[in-house]
Amino acid sequence: MSSNNPFARLPEVPSFTVTSTTVTDGAAWPAEQMSGLFGVPGGKDISPQLSWSGAPDGTKSYAVTVYDPDAPTGSGFWHWAVADIPATVTQLSEGAGDETGSGLPDGVFQLPNDARAARFIGAAPPAGHGLHRYFVVVHALDVENIGVPAEGTPAYLGFTIASHILGRAVLTATAEIPA
Fold first, then answer.
1. Which of 74, 101, 103, 173 could serve as a FRET partner for 45 with CA atoms 20 to 30 Å apart?
2. Domain with 67 in it: what CATH number?
3. What would the mean pLDDT of 54-72 be, rounded to a whole number?
4. Which residues pair with 110 in a beta bridge?
């Protein structure tokens, strides 16, 4: 497993809490959150349920990202990026990140992930590559609208939110496919 820390070069901010009925922090993704689109048997590419609480005062919106820094790409792999979640929203239902985003609140949008699909794409580490970490992050922001275009990339979202993050809630899931 790589020791890549995806937060090493980002501003330090207070943490708050994110939980999930889908996956426990530090545990493996269930089959439903693996990628059938990338050929993982039993994978269904269903976004996880997320609930968060304790965001800092002044939070005006949230962004949610799912990132695998251990992907063999040199730049990791962005699985999901959601922007402009109103501050009044403190949960996303399982499956909210489907190809239509039908489970997302009005005005919220998904950016294309590294597979260039504006949806959640499940875990699909290469067979025999070892354990991968998937950082599920809720970013509390000091603006209502981050101003990133819907066709932007998750990396561009990350660059843009860096100076607006008031707090960060992190849950880490894992996945490994034997050789």
1. 74
2. 3.90.280.10
3. 97
4. 82
| Banded pLDDT at 2 (limits 50, 70, 90) | very low
Please list, in sequence order, all residues whose beta carbon lies within 8 angstroms of the beta carbon of residue 77, skipping any fewer than 6 positions away.
Answer: 67, 68, 71, 114
Residue 124 maps to a domain: yes
> By C-alpha distance, which of 28, 111, 124 is closest to 72?
124
Report the alpha-carbon distance of residue 125 to residue 149 in Å, rounded. 29
Number of domains comprising the chain:
1
In terms of Cα–Cα distance, which of 96, 104, 93 is closest to 120? 96
The domain of 108 spans 17-175
What's the pLDDT band for 8 if we cut at 50, 70, 90? confident
CA distances (Å), origin 141, targets 39, 107, 109 = 35, 16, 16
C-beta separation of 167 from 55 below 8 A: yes
Please check whether residue 9 lies inside any domain of the structure. no
pLDDT in tens, 97-108: 999 999 999 999
Identify residue 128 by its one-letter amino acid code. G
| 7 domain-assigned | no
- In this structure, is residue 1 part of a structural domain? no
